[in-house]
Write a structure and sequence with these properties.
Blueprint: H1 14-26, H2 30-42, H3 48-68, H4 75-93, H5 96-123, H6 130-134, H7 145-175, H8 182-202, H9 211-220, H10 222-231, H11 237-257
Helix pairs in contact: 2-3, 3-4, 5-7, 7-8, 8-9, 9-11, 10-11
Transmembrane segments: 21-42, 48-68, 75-93, 105-124, 150-171, 183-204, 211-231, 237-254
Keywords: Membrane, Transmembrane, Transmembrane helix
Amino acid sequence: MIEKAPDTRAGPSPARRAWDALGAMLDGPLTGLAPWIVLAVVEGPGRLAWAAGIALSLSVLFVAVDLLRGRSLKLLGVIDVVFFAALLAVHFLLDQAGQDWMETWVGEIANITLVVIAVGSMLARMPFTIQYAREEVDEQYWRTPRFLRINYVITGVWAVAFLVAAIAGFYGDAVLHDSENLWTGWVIQTAAMLIALQFSAWYPEDPRPPVSALLAPLAVWLIPVGILILTDDGGPGWVGYTFIAVGVAAQAFLRKGE
């Protein structure tokens, strides 16, 4: 038996693997939206400065890492840095009354800003998702009708999601006078974002998967909503149990149909 010489070729170093993993995480428009999600999660009474500071730090980090990786400078990434830097500066320039007002309406301000970014990018014939898509698709496809249509549709879906979130937040703050309302402050806004996120992964596939593949992951979301309704007094108990039951049944049915 001939003994094989040991393979002395070294694999990627841990640092290189970590860098590649970070790069994979940063590919896609969700990176540009991550600071806005952080703002929505962290902000609250007395926490706006912290939320804006963390969001700004993430925005700068994402832009710097993209440039270090040789990626193009993204419109959304630049807007992230400018918006959160301005938000942080304005917060410290306002008096207490102004800061209280900002803390109340910052969610709506952020969501309307995102609507303007999405719609404005489409009007400028540069939907904000297209810069991310170009780095994942060969250049020969960049000007094809299908590639352009996909990015316009996905950007449009995100614009609708941001608008729904803004309207829900406004209703909770201006009509219900309850920024902590479970439905307007969390359920509806989160649902809009999750639908847009899932649609962004499902729509570009070729051939396009069945609609059940789009809906099945969303059905899972009904279960934690039901649990929250039961634990956070978000409605009658039967509503919470119905959400849980429908979520379990819908997921099983949709997964079976895939």
